[in-house]
Amino acid sequence: MLKNPADRTSPSPASEHVDPRIQRTREHVLRVTRVLLEERKGPLTLSALADRAKVTRQTLYTHWGTIDNVVADTIVLARPRNRSDYEALDSRSRAELFLNELIDTLDPAMSGAIASIIGALQYDEAAGNSFGKVDDDLFAEFISVVGPITHDQFVELTGPIVISIISGGTVSRELVLSLAERAAQFLNQAPRS
Q1: In this structure, what are the phi and psi dihedrals at residue 43, rounded to the nearest 5 degrees?
Q2: The pTM is what?
């Protein structure tokens, strides 16, 4: 996890006003990235992405800097955005919904992308920043829609799902229910303001 959000290579489009043309270009590039990840005909490169998206490599470098940052933003963009589903639910049900959405997000294309970023962590600091961005965004989203927990608790809840999926396994309903129950316990321990 990034300790300082200013360390991120790519700006978060949700946190600042962005020209609509730039936003459309970013969204187009991220949709094309998703398609290329699904096709998976070899390693994804900025050059291949620029060719397919019909943008310049300079555009990609300007907005993201590295292919890992593009993939990280693609993963975050793949997350559902309708948060009204959470409002009427209790804490255990909110956690269960979040975890099921996480599983849906980590389909084969996205899980392969995360596995690539994780594989690069040992020798590429930029990959660490990219993975940290995904982690930070998911953690902030959890707090926003489910409730306040610590980052260690968040890792305890999401780690088994991410590891299972990127290793090619499946996530059982029993595991999700168990993790949702654990989340409810964490939330009940949280200090009330």
Answers
A1: -65, 140
A2: 0.76
